[in-house]
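hey m, so remember when u said the tokens were messed up on ur end? i reran from scratch. heres the input so u can diff it against urs
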Amino acid sequence: MRSASFYFSKENRVILSLGMLSAAIIAFQLVLMQVISIMQWYHFAYMIISIAMLGFGAAGTALALMREKLLSAASWLAPVLMCLSGIFMIFSVWLARLQVFQFDVYVLFVERSQFGILAANYLIFFLPFFFGALAIGILLTKNAGNIGKFYFANLIGSGIGGVLLVFLLSVMFAIEALPVAAMLAVLASIMGFDLQRHKGLQAGVIMLGMAVLVFAFWLPGEVPLSQYKGMSRSLLLPDARVVHSKPDIHGRVDVVASNAMRYAPALSFTYTGRVPVKKNVYTNGEFYGVIPQFDTTVTNIHDFTTEALPYIMGARETVLLLNASTGTALAHALQRGAAKVQAITAVHAVKALMENEFAQESSFLFHDKRAEVLYQDSRQFLFSAKDNSYDAIILPRMEAFGGSAGLNALVEDYTLTIEAFSQMWDKLSEDGVIAVTSWMDYPPRTTLKIAATLVQALGNQGVTDPRDHMVAVRSWGTITFVVQKSPLDQAVAGKIRSFCREMLFDPVILPGFDPQNETLYNQLEDDSFFSYLDKIISREDPDFFENYSFYVAPATDDKPYFGRFLKTSEIQQQLKEYDDLPFLELGYLIVWITLAQGAFLAIVLIIIPLFRLRSKSKSKTATIFYFGALGLGYMFVEIIFIQRFILYFGHPMYAIAAVISTMMIASGIGSYFSGRFKLAHKVSAVSTLVVSLLILLYAVSLTPLLMHTINLSLAVKVFIAFVLLSVPAFFMGMPFPSAIRVLDANRQDQIPWAWGINGSLSVIATALATLIAVEMGFRVVMFFAMMLYLVAFAVALINFAREKPS
């Protein structure tokens, strides 16, 4: 039996501290993503963190330039850097919440001063990553000869950090989880000190670290919101206040009340009743729904909107509500006489609020015996549902009044793909309908994309003329599209015409309807919408999608970005025409900016060390290509796996946790085993070839395999995901430490530079892979990943084979 002294030997303490620091950095990254998503929007969080993560590349550059000095002080410097990383995790978020550092993405392209504030935010969030990465780089470089164990600890720690934060974010607010990440970094610092040489310094670090953690727990939990978020505007109303807040894996859920807060979703001008006061529900500061007041004795307010259309067309005994949010559509369906309603909601905190705190206020709507409210992803439900006799499948109202700024451009939405609508069609009764409502937007984007998706889905079912099955009705603010499984008849058309006359709505698509010969109650200043819609439905213009200024072609499971409208070829023109920001597709543009900034900074960080390495070292090109290919390739694979498993698990955070944690752990094991092979140059070549072949195999077989097993229980799916992810990740963990061993035997001065190259290009890979996926689909990203690993294989085969054996 081994003594305790073995487990707490100097090397093991350093390895443990490295793992804890790695867990802290991943945890901080996820916390930061949530916090900035609340303060701003997801894509902006994505941009700031991508630049901040270049701290890894900067750490590699610093190591390459000051290798001897940093390594000579490694025994005390690495723990101090760990402590500084934890301290700046706290202070970076604290500083970002101060008024002087707050900015708004909406005015980023209008006020030049915002770019200075943006640069300050980059620096603030860069520091904790830089200090942590420099500590990791020092330890990996110092122990290059035993890199397998240390890289194993680095990857295993990262995997554990991801799992830990997913658990924490489901039970506490992101700002409350921040001290946990910082505490891990401080504990890693304490563990990493050499007690015989730096006992006093360790004591100082303990005191400083504990003081900062106390400060962190003392910090108020409020996260300032952008003034342009819906919740910020609501809180400007008289007596507006937050009456309840709840954490969720999606982020923060808040309920806001005000006597001035009214709910009137594009009501007909014929409505003469009282507009009800409703409490609003927000997720991450964005409108999610209202607390419905379920009262069967009064007419539901939605009967005076275009959303009543599916109920006007016929009786709906069984109704399926996808993305049912707070239950307003549920109350409407029950009041329209539905005998059985299944409502699917993906935000557990909202479901819990409606079942508990606001159950009485909503007249126990979620407890109605005719209703079944399920916490599940809507697309997951479509895969698993056995019922094929729904009279109506209803999706929630889309977009916002007047359109949006395209901040959902890169959000994967598998409920709005052609494949999803085909599944809905298969689950309809003989006269069942699918209903989709959207706010009218200008220039037309969302409305046209809905129409295009429905037309394509109908075409896939063998429908030759969409008008035989499709109707649409427009009010002054919204449009509702309905497709019916059986062909439309004149009786249904007559009901719709009567409904339109009564409510002062306008038919848009209807058998026998000719807009040239009809009186319209709601005129449009620009009636080009009708001609665009006619081209989509008639399918007479095959070049319409290519020639239209916005991307309105249907989303697919391979490219599930329904909210993406900006075309790459139109960016310059859009900036000229729509300098008024509500029309500018910011989400997609932000990713391009992220890529440009990241690429520039990465190139700078890679080139700077060349001036020092120019006369000392050889084979620098091989180092750039090998480690650059690994950095890009690994992240390409990881990102595509995340995208595929979002559909499989039905939740982005679960997919992120499963993919990152499994890949990190399996790669860590692969790294550990790579050290058991003596000829590192052969391992670096063979492993990259194996990975490229596995990527090719997965590109062909992964999606069919996932679709075949998607209906299994969660436990079984977790096991399948673990096996599928572990196999390639195991081999993906081998090339990096093996190549470091080659450098250790031949070009030691290039080790930190190689690590910096890998880190810099990993950050670029995130934006680049996303853009490739949006433009060309997931399979193309997999192809590029395979080619990158083949590049690494070629370098190892041609260049490393000539090196001194390691």
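this time it looks ok to me. The chain has 29 helices and twelve strands. if urs says something different then somethings off w ur setup not the seq
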